[in-house]
Amino acid sequence: MPELRKDPVVGRWVIISTERAKRPKDFVAQTVEESNETACPFCEGQESQTPTEIFALRRHGTAKNTPGWDVRVVPSIAPILKVEGNLDRRGKGMCDMMNGIGAHEIVIETPKHASDYPDLDEEQIAKVIMVSRDRIVDLSRDIRFKYVLFFRNHGLLAGASAIRHSRSQLMALPVNPKRVKEKLIGARKYFEYKERCIFCDIIKQEKEQSVRIADETSDFIAITPFASRFPFELCIYPKEHSPDFTNIKKHQIGDLAKILKRVTTKLKTALNDPPYNLTLHSAPFKRMTRSGYWKTVDDDFHWHIEILPSLTRVAGFEWGTGFYINPTPPEEAAKYLKEIEV
Amino acid sequence: MPELRKDPVVGRWVIISTERAKRPKDFVAQTVEESNETACPFCEGQESQTPTEIFALRRHGTAKNTPGWDVRVVPSIAPILKVEGNLDRRGKGMCDMMNGIGAHEIVIETPKHASDYPDLDEEQIAKVIMVSRDRIVDLSRDIRFKYVLFFRNHGLLAGASAIRHSRSQLMALPVNPKRVKEKLIGARKYFEYKERCIFCDIIKQEKEQSVRIADETSDFIAITPFASRFPFELCIYPKEHSPDFTNIKKHQIGDLAKILKRVTTKLKTALNDPPYNLTLHSAPFKRMTRSGYWKTVDDDFHWHIEILPSLTRVAGFEWGTGFYINPTPPEEAAKYLKEIEV
User: Each residue of A38-90: pLDDT tens digit?
Assistant: First the structure.
């Protein structure tokens, strides 16, 4: 059973994945090559190569775990967290821990062997968004979970596996991720002071200043954040205030697919298909109030998508200090991306 | 002038280094090779290849910027922050910023072309510690600075340059690094509740449990932290309580040199000379109290050194979420390291 452990000083949770424990020799001379692409387990027709599907958007009359699907969700073959069991929160002296309970699902984004959003059409990406939303809603019913994270790794350097078949991941967690919590706290403080959503105010200011807009559609805006940590970092916001991604409206789904295809295509063109990580930050579906009750999400958060290209080789200094050094001013990154025709 | 920018939501400061701004093409097909080692600017005799020295531990009678030194400190040839100017804190709407004022110095740790602590003798490492301490004390007199960070990058993947000459870096910052601040806050909360230093309590518990001790000398203990983020992560604590590294005692310097040489040699043996980052976390030399006065460092912090090997290729998921997945339980890492004879 993997274990969740809490740092006694800073309160950060980490997952110690005891079952795939690595010994020193596993790290030595580790090289990963792009695999033989003919043997892709995510392609249509290879359904038997994955664990049993959890859900698939299928053509009428096709059977589970057979061809005939557009988007298919399967459990991870090497799950970071296990779905069976109880959390069993406990302490030993100063050390707090709980069982590594959670869900880890793979959303196979296309039946064809395509590697990323630029290769998919907008309708296909819209289907991915719909299926992911439905899976998040389903996972949110499990009272052990506090957050479901949707993320995508593109390219080996961004942590993707050697199999280049477009997919994203869903991870249901029994704790809120630190970066989400930091944003929630910051946004709440601002809301308490101003009685306005900080993200709505950021969007308003970005539109006024108009120097960090990388792309825009009718419902969404993609900006290079003022205090970007990484070159060509992007943040996609829905223009209309909404704390919770799962409440996305029908017309917004198509428009989100459009801006996702556009900005990933721009990145691919500008930076020669860079590795990147995409993360969806939405309000947790359950939040403990100060009085100890669960309440539904309030007006102080605004869901968004972060895209972090892995362009700078190194990050060790940042790991140790939390101090980021970004060699590309976001205003220049926005200018480059804006000018690329897609 | 580089610019320090504050994220409006989470309050994190980043450095936008406008003067070495990178365009998209700079990131494309970027490869770095180990350089031609015959042309090392850090070797004795090559003093003219570096900026004018700030300080050197020299044999009596040798002139500045000539051979005859044991440890030599020079300004970085590509400083991340600039030493001349005022901070000029300012805001533009929701965006807060200040000038990128600071100091960025290189501590050349040996006149010979050696790459890391395992190649140096303990006396030499002790000299590095003494010189670094003196430079931190000197930089702390500048009222613009709140923190001086001592760190080392070993190996290309950990952000070191292609020149493999053992050196560390000092960066004087006008703000406290986020990770240091998080530790200060956590330690203070614990102190307020328990009236004891959290790090002293951790050391006591680690000695009792005795499963995460990687090495130990008379004055220092090296542990693999309970909630380690990375495989073979190490933390070196002085056993005697002390908030501030610059108050290190004479006999502790030699002993710190000893444990540094021992643990880096163990890592080199176990993991085939892995890239790693080493960071010194000491209490900031000035701290704003709640009543607004500067006060000297209190009893609620305990200086220490973090060593983070860069063994896992990828970190993108962690960047997006703050959630770490560690495939090597720290108890196993400690066991491996403990058993290695040095």
Answer: 689 999 999 999 999 999 999 999 999 999 999 999 999 888 888 989 999 99
Residue pair B88/B101 in contact by the 8 Å Cβ criterion: no
Cα distance between residue A139 and residue A145, in whole Å: 8
Hey, what are A40's tokens?
């892709």
Distance from C-alpha of A57 to C-alpha of A76, rounded to nearest angstrom: 18
Record: contact B15-A202, CB cut-off 8 A: no
Residues in A touching B102 (Cβ below 8 Å):
none
Q: What is the ipTM of this complex?
A: 0.86
For residues A206 and B303, give the distance between their C-alpha atoms in angstroms, rounded to a whole number.
Answer: 41
Kindly determine whether residue B205 and residue A93, on different chains, have CB atoms separated by under 8 Å: yes
Percent of chain A with pLDDT over 70: 88
Q: What domain count does chain B have?
A: 1
Q: What's the rounded Cα separation, in Å, for the pair A30 and A191?
A: 48
> Residues B158, B257: contact at Cβ < 8 Å?
no
Does the beta-carbon distance from A225 to B274 stay under 8 Å? no
Rounded to whole angstroms, how far apart are CA atoms B307 and B214?
Answer: 12
Q: Which domain holds residue B87?
A: 3-339
Report CA Rg, chain B.
Answer: 20
B321 to A20: CB separation less than 8 angstroms, yes or no:
no
- Looking at the domain assignment, is residue A32 inside a domain? no
Distance from CA of B9 to the nearest CA of A (A): 5
A320 with B329: Cβ contact below 8 A: no
Taking only the tens place, the pLDDT of each residue in A281-319 is: 999 876 555 555 444 446 889 999 999 998 876 555 677
Whether A267 is covered by a domain: the verdict is yes
**DSSP reduced 3-state for A265:** helix
Return d(Cα B332, Cα A22) in angstroms, integer: 9
A227/B276 CB distance under 8 A:
no
* Backbone φ/ψ region at A123: left (φ over 0), alpha (ψ -120 to 50), beta: alpha
Closest chain B residue by Cα to residue A97? B227
Within 10 Å of residue A310's Cβ, how many Cβ atoms? 24
Q: Return the percentage of chain B with pLDDT > 90, whole number.
A: 66
pLDDT on residue A158? 73
**Domain-located, residue A3:** no
Mutate which: B106, B278, B282, B314, vs A, most A CBs within 10 A:
B314
Residue A307 sits in a domain of what CATH number? 3.30.428.10
The pTM of the whole model exceeds 0.95: no
In this prediction, residues B78-82 reach a mean pLDDT of: 87
Q: What is the pLDDT of residues B112-158, one digit of tens each?
A: 999 999 999 999 999 999 999 999 999 999 989 999 999 999 987 77
Interchain CB contacts (distance < 8 Å): A and B: 275
The residue of chain B nearest to residue A270, with distances taken between CA atoms, is: B24
Question: Radius of gyration (Cα) for chain A, nearest Å?
Answer: 20
